[in-house]
Amino acid sequence: MAVKLDGLSPKELQALIAQAQSRMETARAEHIQNVKAKIDGILKAAGLQLSDVYSARGGKRGKRAGAGVPKYRNPADASQTWTGHGKSPAWFQAALKKSGVTAESLLISKTPAKKSTAKAAAKKSPEKKAARKAAK
Fold this sequence. Notes:
Elements: H1 10-46, H2 50-53, E1 72-73, E2 81-82, H3 90-97, H4 113-135
């Protein structure tokens, strides 16, 4: 299909481009539908689901280990956290501008409270044993 472009005005060329782009979108949508139909047919014939063939993926690249686990917490609003990956959020940058605040002070504590109380209870247990023996 040859179209003579010589002699067309800018307005006519613009209209031709718009028609071509519209047709391109339609052709792409039709192509996608045809490919989907072929894939569905292959999966149905094999008795499989798409999830059987391709596992769920978070994106084009695999996720790093630990990505998405919050590392820092906003002291002013505990619901705001940051993983430490990527651009730092505004609340993190603002907090660092305050005197006495460091990145380390914004870290989320890795030690649960139960462990520290368990250690304290372990330290008290010899005293409790001695008190029990004295009471008997």
